[in-house]
Design a protein that fits this description.
Mean pLDDT: 86
Structural class: alpha+beta
Strand content: 35-45%
Number of strands: 13
Radius of gyration: 26 Å
Helix content: 10-25%
Order of helices and strands: HEEEEEEEEEEEEHE
Low-confidence stretches: none
Number of helices: 2
Length: 216
Amino acid sequence: MSTPLWQFWTDWTVKLLGMLATVAAVIVALFGYWLRQRIDPPRLGLAHSNAEGWQGVIYELDAATNRAKYKTSGIWHQVRVHNKSRRNPVTEVHIFLLSIEAPDASGVFKPIGQTPPAALIWRFETGNPKPKTIGRPEECDLCHVLKDTGELRLSPLIKGQVPDTFTGPFPLKLRLTLQARGVEADSDTYRLEISWDGKWSDDQTQMSRHLVVTPT
């Protein structure tokens, strides 16, 4: 008894679809990463996190009572790295400080020494922080001012690798060039200007007029 024509074509279609599904699975397994990179490649970007900065307090351990006691207040500014294609994370990412510039006597900004690319420290991390995998955004400390020191400090991961402590003359101005770098992608360079008049205020809004960080 011969197979009905409709059943022949149904069987043939099912087998063809199964074969195509198998081929597609093999292609995805072999070339899925390559296709994702071509269709929706990872794209790193940098941004200043908060125009007013983040105000915090530093405590130290009191040896007599074994309790934390107030030491000083500070204001911190951070820079954020984000990935516009979160489905394709970028591995081994650091935010690097590429150059530091300060105005000369004529007001023209000139590089300070030979600044090697210096990784910034990730926010809230100490010790030996490792590079990040960036799918969701992460932040690095950029600079901070402490109430009692009269110093502006940058936040390189390795202290002393670049000039990182500035005490004037005031008003103090610096221009920094940053770039996020990872295995799969780098960001465009990102420039910020830091201006500080040397003053401190416990009021964060008022302090944001003394210490100003702006993209350039």
